[in-house]
Amino acid sequence: MTVSPGRYGVWRHATGLTPGLAREIESLGFGAVWIGGSPPGDLQLAEDLLDATGSLVVATGIVNMWTTPADEVAPSYHRIAAKHPDRFLLGVGIGHPEATGDYTRPYATIVEYLDRLDELAVPAAGRALAALGPKVLDLSRDRTAGAHPYLTTPEHTRSARERLGDDVLLAPEHKVVLDTDPGSARALGRPAVHRPYLGLRNYRANLLRLGWTEAELDDGGSDALIDALVAHGTPEQVAARLDEHLAAGADHVCAQLITPGMTAPEPGLRRLASALGIG
């Protein structure tokens, strides 16, 4: 079994995804859509998106291990994989401690969850792991098809690739604002970074490992930090930023398009697809 998401994908919260949008994303040439926001274990949205499209890969980004037991998600995986072979990737992850009352033994919990997926015959090649730090990147290499880092930079992608080695999927997410004015682009992009991510220990720790300082992470993030985490400018400038991940070793990069008031993303996705040369 091989799931091939292509070079470019779209990350979008589950509440903003519909079968119609999935068809549009596929028609624009994107290889995958990632369902954000901890989708429930029935994975019904993933099945609906796959039913509506012909070749698009659908991935979860991510099913939360704390809220969705492996015993719940495994039957859903098998239902979907049988119906749409080689088109579904089960992304799973530990989430973050601030959202979970009992956040003890996170690493051991990941291992136990993957062990249970093994017992339930969910193949390693059909799943990916949300991974930022070294130990979990190692798990993604050894126990899954690869890693799906969130809120990262091409510098993280480069170090992750060095740790993962070759032939392991590396599919980072990167936020995107199509606006050539730095001030208004930051005003739109900063809230998507500030809350909740700059208040969460795992994301802060990862950014500190990358060389950012505590001061740069406080008060909504410095302009330099926001510029690093939210690509902005013309579609061509944004495409060049996404391609930095590929040059750093990513196999696939998924763009999270941020629009004013979370308006319909289709116009922006069309412009981005054209700049990426896939439309």
UniProtKB/TrEMBL annotation:
Pfam family example for this protein? Bac_luciferase
- Molecular function as annotated in GO: monooxygenase activity; oxidoreductase activity, acting on paired donors, with incorporation or reduction of molecular oxygen
Entry-linked InterPro entries: Bact_Lucif_Oxidored (IPR050766), Lucif-like_OxRdatse_MSMEG_4141 (IPR019922), Luciferase-like_dom (IPR011251), Luciferase-like_sf (IPR036661)
Which residues are in the Luciferase-like domain? 20-252
**Source domain of life:** Bacteria
Record key words, sorted: Monooxygenase, Oxidoreductase
User: Its GO CC terms?
Assistant: cytosol
Name recorded for this polypeptide: Luciferase-like monooxygenase
